[in-house]
């Protein structure tokens, strides 16, 4: 029994060391030839078949890599204000606690030059290493924060749904018009949010006039009701205010 255990441990150690060496080798190769296509993560290592993770109504999928998906789900580089259930579901499932894959399991990335999807032409932008650090932080937040990023990811709206074309940059913000493409028009929004008891305590129609949505609705931090800075006695709450 002990002998078998030692052999098993030995084999495991070898596999582990081999992994390290291959990994290092791959890293060196990547440095020498940055444009070389990265190796696709085999989805099969975790999913014996896709049927068990796809919606029941979903067409049958053949293949074992991301290319099995992109034949029908061509990546969207347009940055239009719309939902992208494919992207958000892939991100939410694989960038959380259950599975935390590296971006390059599915994406190609040449720092400062391009960021695309393995096996497909096209790029979302040219994030540098510093940009990517911030982007990864916001992905981690979107996975579970309970803030706006997370509420939108759950609703099928990915980063570009708010940020528009290209990868989000450190100084990015989102203009009111962009939010209103999905939540507008403003008059309707204001009608919906008029409190029944005190109709003039309306966050979307007040003596402040037109102000940036992001004064209250923060992308990646707790949202706050600005009115309460002055009106301490008003009772108002806002979605995305607190971590869940
Ligand atoms: C390291 C393991 C791992 C790898 C590799 C992996 N997945 Fe997953 N995948 C998961 C886990 C864990 C879940 C979450 C299952 C759950 O929520 O119960 C998941 C969920 C999914 C879902 C369901 C998403 C949803 O919320 O509806 C799909 C579709 C999927 N994976 C496709 C893929 C594809 C395509 C690949 C290859 C590009 C891949 N996975 C690679 C672990 C992995
Ligand atoms: C044969 C074409 C085809 C292939 C291949 C394909 N899909 Fe789909 N997919 C569709 C269609 C059509 C829909 C919309 C209908 C639906 O939601 O069932 C869809 C919808 C989805 C959705 C959104 C479901 C929702 O909740 O709205 C996800 C996620 C998804 N596909 C993931 C994948 C993944 C992951 C792969 C690769 C493993 C893949 N698809 C391969 C055709 C395809
Ligand atoms: C399991 C595979 C997978 C992993 C891991 C993954 N992505 Fe993606 N990503 C996709 C797919 C699939 C799309 C969808 C392309 C489309 O339909 O537009 C996508 C799209 C994107 C987009 C453009 C669409 C959008 O609005 O978000 C960005 C930006 C992006 N990914 C960034 C990242 C970053 C950064 C990481 C690592 C923190 C990452 N992804 C990890 C599969 C993955
Ligand atoms: C609901 C809209 C929305 C979605 C979805 C969204 N963001 Fe943002 N993001 C914002 C807003 C608004 C700001 C500006 C900061 C603020 O006012 O909160 C911002 C700022 C940023 C910034 C710049 C500075 C900072 O705060 O980090 C980065 C980088 C960023 N977002 C990345 C992402 C990524 C990556 C995703 C997808 C996982 C994403 N965003 C999804 C709204 C959004
Ligand atoms: C691509 C369309 C789209 C864009 C752009 C967008 N949203 Fe959303 N938003 C959604 C979807 C979808 C949901 C998920 C819940 C739902 O269906 O209403 C959501 C949820 C919300 C919620 C939470 C609603 C609730 O009751 O939980 C708020 C608040 C919100 N959005 C505000 C904003 C603001 C502010 C912006 C701009 C910074 C913005 N959204 C940009 C589509 C969008
Ligand atoms: C002064 C703070 C403030 C500003 C500025 C603000 N909101 Fe809101 N928003 C709130 C509050 C508070 C709620 C919750 C209202 C409720 O529960 O009825 C809310 C709720 C929402 C909701 C979810 C409820 C619904 O009816 O869909 C959306 C979407 C939304 N805001 C979008 C926007 C957009 C888009 C802008 C910019 C044009 C904006 N908000 C500007 C405070 C604000
Ligand atoms: C910078 C401080 C400030 C902010 C922020 C602010 N207000 Fe006011 N508000 C005032 C002042 C000052 C008055 C006039 C004082 C008075 O007559 O009581 C006032 C008066 C009002 C009144 C009428 C008097 C009352 O108390 O009922 C309403 C309603 C009101 N504000 C709603 C809002 C709403 C809704 C918001 C957020 C969208 C908001 N205010 C944000 C300072 C502010």
Explain what the structure shows.
This protein is mostly helical. The protein folds into 2 domains: 34-163, no CATH class; 198-244, no CATH class. 38% of the residues lie in helices and 3% in strands. It contains 9 helices and 2 strands; from the N terminus they run αααββαααααα. Strands 1-2 form a two-stranded antiparallel sheet. A hairpin with a 3-residue loop joins strand 1 (107-110) and strand 2. Helix 4 packs across helix 5. It is elongated. The structure holds heme C (HEC) (7 copies).
Query: What is the spatial order of strands in the main beta sheet?
Result: 1-2
Largest sheet: 2 strands, antiparallel
- Terminal-residue CA separation: 48 Å
Helix content: 25-40%
Oligomeric state of the chains present here: single chain
List SSEs in N-to-C order.
HHHEEHHHHHH
Determine the mean pLDDT.
86
Defining traits:
9 helices; 2 domains; two-stranded antiparallel ribbon; mainly alpha; 244 residues; 3% strand; disordered N terminus; binds heme C
List the helices and strands and how they pair.
Blueprint: H1 2-32, H2 67-70, H3 85-94, E1 107-110, E2 114-117, H4 129-144, H5 148-154, H6 159-163, H7 176-183, H8 186-193, H9 227-230
Antiparallel strand pairs: 1-2
Helix pairs in contact: 4-5
The structure holds heme C (7 copies).
One heme C binds next to helix 4, helix 5 and helix 6.
Care to give the gist of this entry?
The chain has 244 residues and is mainly alpha-helical. The chain has 9 helices and 2 strands, in the order H-H-H-E-E-H-H-H-H-H-H.
């Amino acid at each position: 029994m002990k002998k078998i255990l030692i052999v098993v441990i030995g084999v495991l150690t070898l596999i582990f060391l081999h992994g390290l060496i291959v990994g290092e080798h791959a890293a060196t190769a990547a440095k020498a030839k940055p444009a070389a296509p990265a190796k696709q993560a085999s989805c099969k290592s975790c999913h014996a078949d896709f049927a068990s993770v796809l919606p029941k109504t979903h067409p049958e999928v053949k293949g074992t890599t991301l290319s099995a998906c992109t034949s029908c789900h061509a990546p969207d580089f347009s940055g239009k204000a719309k939902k992208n259930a494919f992207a958000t579901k892939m991100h939410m499932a694989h960038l959380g606690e259950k599975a935390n894959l590296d971006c390059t399991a599915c994406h190609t990335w040449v720092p400062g030059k391009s960021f695309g999807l393995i096996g497909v032409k096209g790029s979302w932008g040219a994030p540098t290493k510093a940009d990517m650090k911030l982007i990864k932080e916001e992905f981690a937040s979107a996975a579970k924060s309970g803030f706006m990023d997370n509420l939108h990811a759950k609703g099928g709206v990915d980063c570009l749904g708010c940020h528009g074309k290209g990868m989000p940059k450190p100084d990015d913000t989102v203009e009111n018009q962009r939010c209103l493409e999905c939540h507008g028009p403003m008059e309707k929004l204001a009608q919906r949010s008029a409190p029944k008891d005190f109709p003039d305590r309306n966050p979307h129609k007040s003596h402040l006039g037109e102000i940036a949505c992001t004064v209250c609705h923060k992308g990646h931090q707790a949202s706050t009701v600005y009115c309460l800075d002055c009106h301490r006695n008003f009772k108002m709450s806002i979605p995305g205010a607190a971590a869940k």
